[in-house]
Amino acid sequence: MDAALKAVAEPRRREILRLIWSRELPATEIAERVGQVSRSAISQHLAVLKGAHLIVERRDGTRRLYRADHGEMARLRGFLDDFWADGLERLRLAAEREQQNRTSDRRNDRSDTHG
Amino acid sequence: MDAALKAVAEPRRREILRLIWSRELPATEIAERVGQVSRSAISQHLAVLKGAHLIVERRDGTRRLYRADHGEMARLRGFLDDFWADGLERLRLAAEREQQNRTSDRRNDRSDTHG
DNA sequence: CCCATAGTTCAGTTGACACTTACGTAAGCT
DNA sequence: AGCTTACGTAAGTGTCAACTGAACTATGGG
Question: Which one of A1, A81, B53, B76 has the lowest number of neighbouring Cβ atoms within 10 Å?
Fold first, then answer.
């Protein structure tokens, strides 16, 4: 969840996310549409987004088609909604839940996509 | 808006935000409750949050009371909601709107709080 | 097999950022 | 005026993240 929030905090990645929100696109075309940046950079952004489960990848011959994962984005919304939970109980639970995640985050960071 | 998203992407700042979500707290007490980090670091986090309009500051003698600004957080939610706008028109508008903001972001960055 | 296309990964650079210590500043008390 | 409390700011450091260019992998066609 922390990964998703961090991923979306980057403007370039939001741009990518919007491009493939309602359709599939190959990496090259994404790079062309974004412009101003190398294919390599796009590829790395896609890796981050994939690591945050914000996009899904499908292979088609030599190409890789990417598409946004609406579900994870919905969970991100829900996460922000927790800040509105008027019950203090729910606030405490959310804080504790996240604090547990942070411990593992420090160790794993972004290395969970390498396996 | 970009500033708010970036501010919230940092776990420590979310922790602070939760502490002062439903009550005012002086900086020192925030630092004590967060722990594990110097008062200086907290002060800098508070500056970032203030720059993103996510908190408001009120002075009381020698102390400074901080409280979360729910309105800005609501706007953050609304921003994420734009990703769900099914109409492609609205998607395009959102993209263009942000692209305009980005141009000024490059120049201003976080310096708009210095005035 | 050789080459082109599509894309990732590696190595290295640069800038941003979270943090610490030290110092500066403002308000209140005696 | 001095001292204390409460806080921000400055300077410096280590780490992470975004980027570039080069090298590598994989699929498909001649």
Answer: A81
